[in-house]
Amino acid sequence: MRILLVYGTTEGQTRKIAEFCSTRLTEAGHEVEMRDSRRRMVDLDMPSFDAVILAGSVHQKQHQETLQNFAVAHRKQLKAIPTMLLSVSLSIAFENGEAEAARYVDGFVEDTGLKPDFVELVAGALKFDQYDYFMNQIVEHIVLENREPITEDREFTDWDALGKAVDAFTGSVADR
């Protein structure tokens, strides 16, 4: 199966997630083309793909603008083939965060007009070493408000669950 994997990342965790997925899919015998949504894709041959995985992290309650722009620009083609959204956020990492993380997906659907066939809510990471003073304040006072204080880098991604979700997606595509 030929799979397009387009990702949008800010601190690099979603790129790491995309690379994990690409490796897993390749090892399962699939051909994967991985693209950064910030790059122009004039040479992209959408009809040549059997499935698409979109991976984007959430910042300020929205997925990357470049990933949303990709979804809008290719919406017609994406609706014609199986599509999965990996929505990466910190919300899902915390107790009672699933509803908030699901709202980010609802926002993506509303903003792009694309309703992916499969959605996986993926916990991201805190990368304090990459934050400036203002981002540190946002994380401390908004993201971690009323939660256990965290002051060092921490990865929350559940790699096993992510792998199983990607396997389930490709399995369902193969069954079509």
Automatic annotation (TrEMBL):
Domain Flavodoxin intervals = 4-145
Q: Which InterPro entries match?
A: Flavodoxin_dom, Flavoprotein-like_sf, Protoporphyrinogen_IX_DH
Superkingdom assignment: Bacteria
Which residue windows are coiled coil? none
Q: Which GO terms describe its biological process?
A: heme biosynthetic process
Q: Which Gene3D superfamilies match?
A: 3.40.50.360
GO MF terms here are: FMN binding; menaquinone-dependent protoporphyrinogen oxidase activity
Q: What is this protein called?
A: Protoporphyrinogen oxidase
The record lists the organism as Hoeflea prorocentri
